[in-house]
Amino acid sequence: MRLHVACVFGFIFLIHYGEGKLWSKGVVHYAINKKDYDPHSQDMIVSALDRIEKEVCVKFFNTPLNYTATDSEKILYISNPEKRKTCPPEQYDYTGSVVDMPIGYKCLNEKDIARIIVDMLRASIEAPLTINSNDLLRKFQERNDNQPNILAASDRNFINAHYHEECSGLVRPQDRRRSNGGTMEVTPDNERFYKDKLWPLGIVMYGVNEFLHSTTEFATLQHAMSAIELSTCVVFQQVSEDGAIKPKNLLWFSDTGEEMPNLGFTAGNQTVTLMSMIHGAPGHSGHTLNLLLRILGVPMMSNRFDRDNYVTVNWRNVQKTKEHYLERMPAEAWLRNTEGEGAAYDYDSVTHAPANYMCNDCSLGAQTVQPIQDHLWQRTLTMGHRNDLSPADVELLNLLYNNQCQQRFINNN
Ligand SMILES: *[C@@H]1O[C@H](CO)[C@@H](O)[C@H](O)[C@H]1NC(C)=O
Ligand SMILES: *[C@@H]1O[C@H](CO)[C@@H](O)[C@H](O)[C@H]1NC(C)=O
C-alpha cells in the first residue's frame, strides 16, 4: 500500500492507495444483461446511473458486450442470474476482470439502484481518508437544476474525495510529436492492431434485402462505397439474396440488425440496419463514409489516443449508453512516419466527429466534442462536415490495405 500526501486547494490530504481497486480513471465500464431486464428496466438503470453521475466525478460508460475486460480495466456486470426479488447487502469482488452487481426486480427504482451503486463504489475504496477540503466537496454539490440530490452528502463526499485523483485521469494529454514530413509506414505494432480487422484481399462482400433495393438510402450507401473504391484499392462487392455465391463473411443491410457495424472484419453474416448507416449520427456529414471506414477497420480520428491535445470531450453532454464511441483507442491504431513521428491530427478527416456527435441535447449549441483553441470557430464549423475522404484518409486506407490488395492482384493473374 502506498501513502501519498496531496495538497488540494490548500488543504492537506492523506490518501491511501489500495491494491488498485478504484475504477481506472474514474470510469466504470458497465454492461447490462438484456436477458434479465426488460427494456423499461434497462432504461431505469441507465437513468439512475445518469443521475448519480451528476453528483460524483465517477462516470459510467455503457460498453459493447465483447469489451475485453482485464484485471486493471474491469467491467461492471449488472444482471440477475438468480431471479431474485430483493437486494440484500452484497460483497463486491474486485479481484477479477468482472465485478458482478446483481439488482433484484423489486429494487428497480432510483433510490435502491443508487444505494446499490454507492455500496459498489464504496467497496472499490479500501482505506478511509480524512476529508477536510470544503472546496473539493462543494464542487459536486452545486446543482444548476432544482432536482434534489439522490445520494446522501456523506456518500457523495466520500466517493468524490477518494476518486478525486483517479477522475482527472480521463483527459490526460499524451505525446504530441507531430509532423507532416517523412513517409508514413505500417509498424509491427500497427500490424498487430489491424491484423484481424482488415478484410481479406481488400474485398468487402455485402447484400441488401430485396425491398430496400430501390431506396434512396441504398443509393447513398453505394455512392459512398464508390467514393472509397475510386481513391483506394478496396472493393465492395454485392451479392444477391438468392444468388449462387454464398460468401461465408458478409455485411447484410436490412431494416433490423445492429445500429453500428463492428470495427473491422467480422466473420459470418453481420446484419446492420440500412437506416442507421445513412442517418445514424445527426450532424455528421460524412456519417456513411465514416461507418464504411469503421467496417474497414479504421477508428475515428477523434478517438485517437492523443486527441485530448486537440479536442475536449464534454462527457456530460454525451448521450447515455453511447460513451464508448467517444473513448480513446490504443496508440497502435495510428501510423507513424519513418522518423517515428505521428501524422498531424486531421480535423478534416471524414472520420472526425462533428461538435454535436452523440449529443444528448445540443439544440442550444452545447457540444460533445470541442476543439481546443478555436478562435474563429473555424474547426467547430468544419469538423465532421467533410463528405469525402481527406488526403490523409486515402493515404491511411491504401497503406493499411496495400498487402491485402497485392494478394488480390496476384490471385487474379
Ligand atoms: C464485437 O462484437 C461482435 C459481436 O457482437 C464480434 O463479432 C466482433 O468481433 C467484436 N469485436 C471485437 C474487436 O472483438
Ligand atoms: C444474412 O442475415 C439476414 C438476417 O439477419 C438475412 O435476412 C440474410 O438473408 C442473410 N444473408 C445471407 C446471404 O445469408
UniProtKB/TrEMBL annotation:
Superkingdom of the source species: Eukaryota
Signal peptide residue numbers: 1-20
Cited PROSITE patterns: ASTACIN (PS51864)
Residue spans crossing the bilayer: none
GO biological process, one term: proteolysis
E.C. code: 3.4.24.-
SUPFAM superfamilies hit by this protein: Metalloproteases ('zincins'), catalytic domain
Molecular function via GO: metal ion binding; metalloendopeptidase activity
Record text on cofactor binding: Binds 1 zinc ion per subunit.
Co-factor(s): Zn(2+)
Protein name: Metalloendopeptidase
